[in-house]
Amino acid sequence: MKELRSLRKTSGITQCGLARTTGIDRTRIWLIETDHVEPRPEEVQAIRQALENAMRERLGTIQKALASAGSPVGA
């Protein structure tokens, strides 16, 4: 599940943050990210939910920043 590291970083969440959010030990998250262990189905679900929530938050932050910047000149 090496793509997990990329997805986690894109979502702006650290291994510690993902561990806190999911209840999965940070070391186990590292083991999953480095393909040392296969995640259990409930871990996949918890990770998916945590990453989706983090991405939603990030998108909301971007949208707010764009809205506060106003319309581009000449639009």
How would you describe the overall organization of this protein?
Helix content is 72%, strand content 0%. The mean pLDDT is 90. It has helices at 3-11, 15-22, 26-33, 41-69. Helix 1 (3-11) runs parallel beside helix 4 (41-69). The protein has one domain: lambda repressor-like DNA-binding domains (434 Repressor (Amino-terminal Domain)), CATH 1.10.260. 16% of the residues are buried. It is mostly helical.
List SSEs in N-to-C order: HHHH
What is the fold-level CATH name, i.e. the topology? 434 Repressor (Amino-terminal Domain)
Low-pLDDT segments: none
- How many E-type strands? 0
> What is the CATH C-level name?
Mainly Alpha
Integer-rounded radius of gyration? 16 Å
The CATH superfamily is: lambda repressor-like DNA-binding domains
Distance between the termini: 44 Å
Structural class: mainly alpha
Q: How many H/I helical runs?
A: 4
Largest sheet: none
Estimate the strand proportion. under 5%
Per CATH, which architecture? Orthogonal Bundle
Shape annotation: elongated
Features:
mainly alpha; 434 Repressor (Amino-terminal Domain)
Task: Give a short overview.
Helix content is 72%, strand content 0%. With 75 residues, it is mainly alpha-helical.
